[in-house]
Amino acid sequence: MTRPNIIVFAFFAVLLAGCGTFPGTPEILIQNAKEGGMLSEKETYEVKRPIAEVTDVFKKKSHECLKQTLTSSWWQGGMKRVQILVYTPKVTVGKNRTRLTLQMKDENSIAVGGPPPEGWYQMVVDAYPAGSNATRIESYVQSAQKAPFTSVKLWVTGANMGCPDLTQ
């Protein structure tokens, strides 16, 4: 490789590393959203439900709606390509917070350094008690796909208990 080609390659590698990284921890996703990172969003709101009810909604709806494996295929260059996306939600309950995370792993993808075992973090939703009958929600998403982010808000407010279409 010639010196000019090495410089161009290095430039694009640095550019992609900065713009194309995926969050490997909830904290990185939250930081990216707070800093206005590409394809990230943060929203804070309060619901008139006790934290125990919000926790129950997280547990029930996340496993009912977000625990999915999606397979798609297409032809490219005369070869059949297959993509298998595995979505893994987790709910952790602590003394002062309930956290819902959503990870996504592409089973056929190879990434430098590799994703965490259950995939890159797509969403983090933290719920905090805000009185006896209220809960403060802090939602963070880093993905072009906002359907789960929107659905969680609808679930915790009680506006719509439907499942998002993760193929969109």
Task: Provide tags for this entry.
single chain, 168 residues, alpha+beta, disordered N terminus
Report on this structure:
With 168 residues, the protein is α+β, with helices and mostly antiparallel strands. It has one domain (23-157): 2-Layer Sandwich (Alpha-D-Glucose-1,6-Bisphosphate, Chain A, domain 4), CATH 3.30.530. It is 32% helix and 35% strand. The chain has four helices and six strands, in the order ααβαβββββα. It has a six-stranded antiparallel beta sheet with strand order 1-6-5-4-3-2, with helices on both faces. Strand 5 and strand 6 (135-142) form a beta hairpin. Helix 3 runs antiparallel to helix 4 (147-157). The protein is globular, with a radius of gyration of 19 Å. The termini are far apart.
Write the layout of secondary structure elements.
Blueprint: H1 3-19, H2 26-34, E1 40-47, H3 51-66, E2 68-76, E3 79-93, E4 98-106, E5 120-129, E6 135-142, H4 147-157
Antiparallel strand pairs: 1-6, 2-3, 3-4, 4-5, 5-6
Helix pairs in contact: 3-4
Concise account of the structure shown:
The chain has 168 residues and is of the alpha+beta class. The chain has a single domain (23-157), classed as Alpha-D-Glucose-1,6-Bisphosphate, Chain A, domain 4. 32% of the residues lie in helices and 35% in strands.
| Mean pLDDT across all amino acids | 84
E-strand count: 6
- H/E series, N to C? HHEHEEEEEH
Distance between the termini: 41 Å
Query: How would you sum up the global shape?
Result: globular
Note the main sheet. Answer: 6 strands, antiparallel
| Tally of helical segments | 4
- Determine the structural class based on helices, strands and strand pairing: alpha+beta
* CATH class label: Alpha Beta
CATH topology: Alpha-D-Glucose-1,6-Bisphosphate, Chain A, domain 4
* Radius of gyration over all CA atoms, rounded: 19 Å
User: Can you tell me the CATH architecture?
Assistant: 2-Layer Sandwich
- Roughly what fraction of the amino acids lie in strands? 35-45%
